[in-house]
C-alpha cells in the first residue's frame, strides 16, 4: 500500500520539511500581497492563521505589482515541478504555500520591485530569469541575513533592486555586440 504524498501550493511538502513561504493574496485589486517565511506547518491547516511571533513577514507588494510578476513565477516554478513529476501550483486568493527554495527566489524578485516604478518590472523579470536558481538562493541568503525584514529597505536590499531593475542584461549584451561590430569594422577599414 503506497501513501500519497501531500503537495501544497507550489511544491510545498509538509511531510518532508516544515520550512516554507506563505503568500497572502487579498481579494480585489487595491490590497497588498504579503509574503511570510514560516518554519512550522500545522497538519490540516485549512484555516491558516499567521503567528506574528514566529512567522516572518518578508515583503509587502501592491496587488498591481504582484499581477505583473505572478505569471512569470507560476511558469518558472511549474516548469520545475513538472520535471520532478509533482503537481503544478496556481495562485489564488487567500494563502498559497511555496516550497522554501522557490520562496527564496520569489522573495528576491519581489524585493527588487517593491519600491520600483512598475515600468522597470520587465527588466527585473528578465534579469531574475537570467540568474540560475543557485544564484537566486545565494542573493536571497546574503540579503536576508542583513535586511530580510518587511521594512528593511537598505543595504543589500537596495543593491538587489538596483542589480535587477537597472542592469538590463540583453541591452548590455546588445551594446557589447555593437561595440565589437564597430571595432571590427574599424580594423577592417
Structure, explained:
By secondary structure, the protein is of the alpha+beta class. It has one domain (20-188). The chain contains six helices and four strands; from the N terminus they run E-E-E-H-E-H-H-H-H-H. It has helices spanning 63-83, 100-113, 121-129, 133-147, 156-165, 169-188; strands at 20-25, 32-38, 56-62, 94-99. The chain has a four-stranded antiparallel sheet. Helix 1 (63-83) packs antiparallel against helix 2, helix 2 crosses helix 4 (133-147) and helix 3 (121-129) packs across helix 5 (156-165). It starts with 19 loop residues before the first strand and ends with a helix. The model is unreliable at 174-179 (pLDDT under 50).
Silhouette: globular
Number of helices: 6
Helical fraction equals 40-55%
Count of beta strands? 4
Oligomer designation? single chain
What is the rounded Rg?
19 Å
* Strand line-up in the sheet with most strands: 3-2-1-4
Q: Mean pLDDT score, rounded?
A: 88
**Structural class of the helix and strand makeup?**
alpha+beta
Low-confidence stretches: 174-179
Strand content is 5-15%
How many structural units, i.e. domains? 1
Query: What is the first-to-last residue Cα distance?
Result: 76 Å
* SSE series: EEEHEHHHHH
Brief overview, please?
The protein is of the alpha+beta class and 189 residues long. 47% of the residues lie in helices and 14% in strands. It has helices at 63-83, 100-113, 121-129, 133-147, 156-165, 169-188; strands at residues 20-25, 32-38, 56-62, 94-99.
How does the SSE layout of this entry go?
Layout: E1 20-25, E2 32-38, E3 56-62, H1 63-83, E4 94-99, H2 100-113, H3 121-129, H4 133-147, H5 156-165, H6 169-188
Antiparallel strand pairs: 1-2, 1-4, 2-3
Helix pairs in contact: 1-2, 2-3, 2-4, 2-5, 3-5
Amino acid at each position: 500500500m503506497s501513501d500519497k504524498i501531500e503537495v501544497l501550493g507550489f511544491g510545498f511538502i509538509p511531510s518532508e520539511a516544515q520550512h516554507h513561504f506563505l503568500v497572502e493574496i487579498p481579494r480585489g485589486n487595491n490590497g497588498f500581497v504579503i509574503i511570510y517565511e514560516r518554519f512550522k506547518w500545522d497538519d490540516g491547516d485549512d484555516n491558516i492563521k499567521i503567528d506574528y511571533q514566529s512567522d516572518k513577514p518578508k515583503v509587502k507588494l501592491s496587488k498591481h505589482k504582484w499581477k505583473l510578476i505572478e505569471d512569470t513565477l507560476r511558469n518558472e516554478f511549474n516548469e520545475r515541478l513538472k520535471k520532478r513529476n509533482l503537481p503544478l501550483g496556481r495562485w489564488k486568493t487567500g494563502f498559497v504555500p511555496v516550497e522554501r527554495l522557490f520562496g527564496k527566489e520569489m522573495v528576491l524578485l519581489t524585493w527588487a520591485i517593491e519600491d520600483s516604478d512598475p515600468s522597470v518590472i520587465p527588466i527585473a523579470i528578465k534579469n531574475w530569469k537570467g540568474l540560475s536558481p543557485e544564484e537566486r538562493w545565494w542573493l536571497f541568503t546574503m540579503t536576508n541575513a542583513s535586511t530580510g525584514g518587511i521594512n528593511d529597505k537598505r543595504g543589500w536590499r537596495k543593491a538587489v533592486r538596483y542589480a535587477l531593475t537597472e542592469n538590463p542584461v540583453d541591452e548590455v549584451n546588445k551594446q557589447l555586440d555593437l561595440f565589437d561590430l564597430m571595432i571590427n569594422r574599424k580594423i577592417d577599414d
